[in-house]
Amino acid sequence: MLGTDSLAQLTRPQTRPVARSVSSNDHGASAPSPVASVLDVDRGTSDAGLGNRLLMNAATRMRNNRTVVAQIRHRVNLFGHRLIGTGTYHQRTREDAILVRWDLQMPVGEEVARLEQVSDGLFLWSKQVTPSWEPGGVPRVEISRINLDEVHVRAEQSQSGVARFLAVEGLPQLLTDLSQHFQFRAPAEVKLQDVPGYGLLGKSLANSGTTAAQPPATRVVPVDARIVMGRDDLFPYLIELRDAEDRPLLILEFHGVQIDGDVDPLMFVFKPHGAPFSDKTREHIQSVRTSRGSD
Q: The CATH number of the domain where 131 resides is what?
């Protein structure tokens, strides 16, 4: 549910294991972006299957982590709008579900738009706070939920929904979706601030024939995927999706990563506290069916 469209909407008016962490010298907030490293990905061979297997191994590793906490830098380019923001990612794995929480902020003029999404195993809750465009106006708050039992997430994937279920099962599901909808080359060895890593370049299976001459609506669908992950932890420190004209649609950079540390279970509880909310389960299922019909 957390995808380029969700982020763009923010600017529309209206003795426990010790946590394993990555120091700021490796992937910290002050470190330069690893984007340049991913440009070397095309050195990888076209060995079909090796890159996808590595991606699935990374997804499995993410699912097996007891907890994950990371800081986020994100950028969205959509319909001529360039949106840049920051946020946090929390993940907790239970036997029956993967709980996920995203908190994203994005400057809008002198105000800040916020998106909070919590997947508690039963529902996907979304709270979107959009600043008013009127001087002294009150921010607009929208709360909605999706019934995960009705959606059957794993069976409702589509080429246009690569980031559609990002909030439901977080990074493990995103990596799985990418491996199913893109053909990746064999990994290339790259450096993330002098730390060994792997770079992956993938081409969309559904949109391999998309060209810049096609209507703009088709060009906002991701055609290329670029991923940089750590060699030892297989954590995806950078995920970049690009359109048919090689323009970045979505860039997610993760830093300050902590794995298997203590995370308050209440981080994955959302309570509307009496505020009105809408149920978008049917709307969500219909949107997925529509996108599947266009595959």
A: 2.50.20.10
Hey, what amino acid is at 155? A
Q: 10 Å Cβ neighbour count for 55?
A: 27
Amino acid identity at 206: A
H/E stretch holding 61 reads helix 50-64
Number of independent structural domains in the chain: 1
Q: What percent of the chain has pLDDT over 70?
A: 69
Q: Which residues contact 39 (CB under 8 A, 6 or more apart)?
A: none
The answer to whether residue 283 is domain-embedded is no
Rg (C-alpha) for the chain, rounded Å, is 19
Q: What confidence score (pLDDT) does residue 26 get?
A: 42
| CA pair distance 117, 138, nearest whole angstrom | 21
Nearest one of 293, 295, 269 to 123, comparing CA atoms: 269
- Which amino acid type is present at position 247? R
Tell me the pLDDT of the chain averaged across its residues.
78
Q: What is the DSSP letter of 267?
A: G
Answer for the pair 240, 38: CB distance below 8 angstroms, yes or no.
Answer: yes
